Amino acid sequence: MTADASTILKSRVPDGPLEQKWDNCKNHMKLVSPTNKRNFDIIVVGTGLAGAAAAASLGEMGFNVKSFCFQDSPRRAHSIAAQGGINAAKNYQNDGDSVYRLFYDTLKGGDYRSREANVYRLAQVSANIIDQCVAQGVPFAREYGGLLDNRTFGGALVSRTFYARGQTGQQLLLGAYSSLMRQVDNGRVKVFPRREMLDLVVVDGVARGIVCRNLVTGKYETYSAHCVLLATGGYGNAYYLATYAKGSNVTAAWRCYKRGAFFANPCYTQIHPTCIPVTGDYQSKLTLMSESLRNDGRVWVPLKQGDRRAPEQIPEAERDYYLERRYPTYANMVARDVASRAAKERCDSGFGVGDSGKAVYLDFSKAIARDGAETIRKKYGNLFDMYAKITAEDPYKSPMRIYPAIHYTMGGLWVDYELQSTIPGLFVLGEANFSDHGANRLGASALMQGLADGYFVAPYTVNNYLGAKKPPIVGTDHPEFLKALEETKARVGKLLAVKGTRSVDSYHRELGGILWDYCGMARNEAGLNAAIGKIQALRTDFWKNVRVMGTPENFNQSLEQAGRVADFLEFGELLALDALTRKESCGGHFREESQTKDNDTLRDDANYSHVSAWQFTGTPDGVQLNTPALHKEPLSFEVEKPTQRSYA
Ligand SMILES: Cc1cc2nc3c(=O)[nH]c(=O)nc-3n(C[C@H](O)[C@H](O)[C@H](O)COP(=O)(O)OP(=O)(O)OC[C@H]3O[C@@H](n4cnc5c(N)ncnc54)[C@H](O)[C@@H]3O)c2cc1C
Question: Which residue puts its alpha carbon closest to atom 2 of ligand 1?
Fold first, then answer.
């Protein structure tokens, strides 16, 4: 299963001191002349923050951009849901922040499983993002004097998170969308909504186009370009219950994997500590309560096991503010994986609250008494309203009940320093790539990474690729396009031909249950082996008994969902296999066999300081996964040597 791949995986990290690498890289890149840019077509799949930012920037530079998404409008991408904020090393609070400190916090937050040079570049460009967004008119919160305000997020001892109440993603996406629409108006970008990318077309080993299904007409369409950018988001919906938009999926990335792009660290999934707990068997979605709430909310459980009194009736002396107790320095603002594990541990030990016992309190009573309800409303009003609407409880009067839930995926398609995958000409941006967060992402850093990739990295590296390679024109009549089209139609046809009796949703729900139980907050060897067997059996059953309604030649949401679940059923196995292979604990990947005495992650740097990158070894149209090959990109740390992570 393991191949020596240092020869295959070239990270292409530039030489030179850490702080000069990105400048050195940019200074030596090839350029496409201004008048020549109009001769290059670029496909960007995805219109979330990463995709919209890249499409707008490349359009502005003069390239011909084709922008795709499955929603009815680019501005409905999942990024719109982001609540709490975006990090940047501006040091507006004068509390000791710097590029270096943001780099350090992010590297440590990821439990030293990310590429040092990428993380440093992310911290460097973070400040540019805020300037760019302010210029677009993004209404970040301001202080009384008019300066941009900041709040604190987990894993940091400084306030560096810029925000627009609890709607930061929405405001950032509207900014990126405005820039995109400007380029549509200029004729540089053409937008293709309601298209689902179902395959990547590779010609002579190079990414040259995509196959889509028009979700309104059901017609298949092919598009060619000189390169393809994938910004299709994360795969957390494999777990069924998650905070993601329901449409988020792994299909585009999985198709690229089956065409030769390596999939890196699929087992690195983020479980967010503050979500509204599961309430019933027929629930289809979970809701995040932003991490920003932990700035003022205090997490606690009763000191006594099984205490069923209402929270207001439990006196201060009988409460356990367990994060403040265990981690006095960071207290409620510890990193997400740490807070999630601590909540699970308290609930598993019988201290959980609510009917299920699978919840802890997030309590604002002290902050409301100190600052007044109006101040709290100004900071978090929409989040409190959301909680009240969903639970019919008033969080101004009694504490919120929260529990961890799947929220983000650090794994994704493997990319080099220039965001290029193992397929030349295929670039991967935002949550869809594995790049900068290692084994755990710190809050407010996904928006930072997506916009860094889209506004400040890809515009340089794509220009470099086109300037250096000057790929020849390939039309959609090329045999590889026709072949990929026929394979796509056959795959869709196969789904409809099963004509079984079991609903697509029931398979998805069962898969999610398997992943959550065996590959969720805690993982062990026996459980992961069991998960792989169960997923294989479920997949076999799916292809015998699934019922997909309707026909392919029209609007058919049952078919859309079936295709996505079929891919999750394959991908889920890779996720579990990756978790099985990584025997250490790191960040969100908690192997029970490898923990400190305090229930924290125990890394094994001697054996696992690498990125695991999986290569598909079957045929793209095959349902069976065969045995993927594991390649390892060694991680080296020149500036910040890995230590045992501590937030105490
Ligand atoms: C509730 C919630 C709150 C969050 N809050 C924060 C926060 O405060 N700060 C922070 O930093 N991060 C936050 N995050 C994480 C952050 O929002 C995401 O990681 C980020 O927005 C992902 O952006 P993206 O551009 O990579 O992908 P997405 O926004 O997921 O966009 C994916 C795009 O790809 C398209 N697409 C996908 N598959 C296909 C296909 N097959 N064919 C065609 N198009 C396709 C979609 O149509 C969409 O346009 C939050 C996440 C959630 C769920």
Answer: 82
Answer whether residue 379 shows pLDDT above 90: no
Distance 46 CA to ligand 1 centre (A): 9
Q: Which of 376, 391, 406 finishes a domain?
A: 406
Q: Tens digit of pLDDT for each residue in 464-495?
A: 999 999 899 899 999 999 999 999 999 999 99
Which residues neighbour 280 within 8 Å (Cβ) at sequence distance 6 or greater?
none
3-state secondary structure of 105: helix
Q: Which of 336, 346, 523, 564 is catalytic?
A: 336
The rounded Å distance from CA 308 to ligand 1 centre is: 38
Active site residue 259: no
- Report the relative pairing of strands 269-275 and 400-409 from DSSP bridges: antiparallel
| Domain edge (last residue) among 374, 406, 438 | 406
Q: What is the mean pLDDT of the chain?
A: 95
399 CB near ligand 1 (under 6 Å): no
Residue 320, phi then psi, degrees to nearest 5: -115, 100
Q: Is the CB of 214 under 6 A from ligand 1?
A: no
1 has a pLDDT exceeding 80:
no
Angle between helices 49-61 and 168-185 (to 10 degrees): 30
Give pLDDT tens digits for 535-574.
999 999 999 999 999 998 899 999 999 999 999 999 999 9
Ligand 1 within 6 A of CB of 444 = yes
Same domain, 290 and 431: no
Ligand 1 centroid to residue 184 C-alpha, Å: 22
Ligand 1 center to residue 44 CA distance, Å?
15
Q: Report CA(6)–ligand 1 centroid distance (Å).
A: 31
Say which CATH number the domain at 371 has: 3.90.700.10
Same domain, 492 and 619: yes
* Boundaries of domain holding 522: 479-634
Same domain, 529 and 451: no
Same domain for 581 and 492: yes
169 in contact with ligand 1, CB cutoff 6 A: yes
Q: Which two tokens stand for residue 69?
A: 């998404």
Confidence of residue 624 (pLDDT cuts 50, 70, 90): low
Question: Is residue 642 assigned to a domain?
Answer: no
- Which has the higher per-residue pLDDT, 100 or 470? 100
Residue 261 near ligand 1, beta carbon < 6 Å: no
Three-state secondary structure call for residue 189:
strand
Domain assignment of residue 42, yes or no: yes
Question: Is-contact 258 491, C-beta < 8 A?
Answer: no
pTM here is 0.96
70 ligand 1 Cβ < 6 A: yes
Please name the residue whose Cα sits nearest to atom 12 of ligand 1.
Answer: 446
Residue 457 sits in a domain whose CATH number is: 3.50.50.60
Whether residues 392 and 417 share a domain: the answer is no
* pLDDT recorded at residue 280: 82
**In 313-453, which residue ranges form alpha helices assigned H by DSSP?**
322-326, 336-348, 365-371, 373-391, 446-451
